[in-house]
Amino acid sequence: MLVGCYLRVSTIDQAEEGYSIEQQKDKLKQYCSVKDWNVYKFYVDAGFSGSNINRPAMQELIEDVNNNKIGTILVYKLDRLSRSQKDTLYLIEDVFNKHKVSFVSLNENFDTSTAFGKASIGILATFAQLEREQIKERMQMGKMGRAKTGKAMNWWNPAFGYIYNRETYDIDQFKADIVKRIYKDYLSGTSINKIAENLNSEGHLGKDRQWSFRTVRMILANSDYTGNVKYHGKIYAGQHTPIIDQKAFETTQKELKIRQQEAYSKNNNPRPFQSKYILSGLLECKYCSCNLALVQYRPRKDGTHLSVYKCPSTMRKKMFTQRQLSNCISKTQERQMLEEYVIKEISKLQANTDKIELMSSSKVVDVDAYEIELEKIEKSLKKLVNIYVDTDSLTIDIFNEKKEALLSQKNAINKKIQSIKKKQPELSIKDAKKVLRGINGNITRASYDTKYKIVRKLIKKIIVGNEESTIKWAFEL
Ligand SMILES: [Zn+2]
């Protein structure tokens, strides 16, 4: 009689249950020789889970059964065939029995060619399923138990400001202070975007990548900072030290809702933009490198304001100085004239976007590819965690090993991105052109709001001299 031997390992089986493909093969061979059966073929699915039958060797086996090539199927253990009751019954009854192929599982001493074997099919399959569900339940109980005892729930990715240590989180003081600052700034009225901007302007503090709206918002909404842990939406008292007190956190959650609604109604009911001046914060004195300060004069008779930019070193009061008071030779600049000059320069670029290539000395290096790769790795990490939590197919050791591998890849790519970005201007040529082409009509005729935004996208800073000012473009190095 010709026997088809089916073997399967998912990665865990090899590590945990101690039967590798080779071990399974040896046992099946021995059994065949005792029974004097001839092996038609070894069907081997290595690295496939038993939760469905979409496995190459399994499909081949089914095809060979359908073509009447084998008389018996032999497996080492019932769950090698399948881990689901439904699939086990389908294979035995609808595939094997239909072609009068008997099925033998060594471990359970199970043989469908006998009457007892036939009766046992349903029972065994039920146990296989039951076992799996118990393991799953145990895993979930484990997670619930962790939450109830306040152990770290995000040990693979602790909240910014915490370090995972022995089942709980330790505080990373430097980062924790940034978290505190984020909450404080937010509650004192600073917008999320502004908070991110400020952190980035100080060299994306605490992070190896830029702060974004999303990363800041996530911090503002993470209840881990109050010393609690969260599992399935429920909050449990944690073992770690809070960074933010409960009251401030709750106020923040309310504020997040309020501002979200405000933003919503604003977007649906646009109000005229009223904010800072186009060049605020971008002007630097050519002679002493101070940031120029705005000085407003009383309204003129016609109602218009005269406002000027001045180097703080020329002022008597000490309040503006960043460096030592010096007698800077810089002269006062009228705000409106400076604004007109800058807008005119942008309009020149708008008329001839190809000029950007000449101005930007950098080579085009595509960071996008790395960013995409990074996203993929982050997705894999999430997936890995989900697999670990939701199924029983990974041991903690393998989980950790895979996690480490992914994290080190992530690190390597992050470093790569950083080093590319260091050699790249803030704004790529491509993006600069996009900004320019995105302007509706000539910028000189755009609204103050639009000008404000465009200037901030295209310009890093403006060095203001008495006779001449120089624009440092974001697409220049
Ligand atoms: Zn100066």
List keywords for this structure.
477 residues, alpha/beta, Rossmann fold, Hect, E3 ligase catalytic domain fold, 4 domains, 5-stranded mixed sheet, 3-stranded mixed sheet, 16 helices, 15 strands, elongated, binds zinc ion
Give an overview in words.
The protein is an alpha/beta fold and 477 residues long. It has 4 domains: 144 residues, Resolvase, N-terminal catalytic domain (Rossmann fold), CATH 3.40.50.1390; 107 residues, Hect, E3 ligase catalytic domain fold; 130 residues, no CATH class; 56 residues. It is built from 16 helices and 15 strands. The strands form 5 sheets. It has a 5-stranded mixed beta sheet with strand order 2-1-3-4-5, sandwiched between helices. A 3-stranded mixed beta sheet has the order 10-14-15. It has a 3-stranded antiparallel beta sheet with strand order 11-12-13. Helix 5 runs antiparallel to helix 6, helix 8 packs across helix 9 and helix 13 runs antiparallel to helix 14. It is elongated, with a radius of gyration of 34 Å. 24% of the residues are buried. About 3% of the residues have low confidence. The protein binds zinc ion. The site of zinc ion (ZN) has 8 residues, from loops. Zinc ion (ZN) binds next to loops.
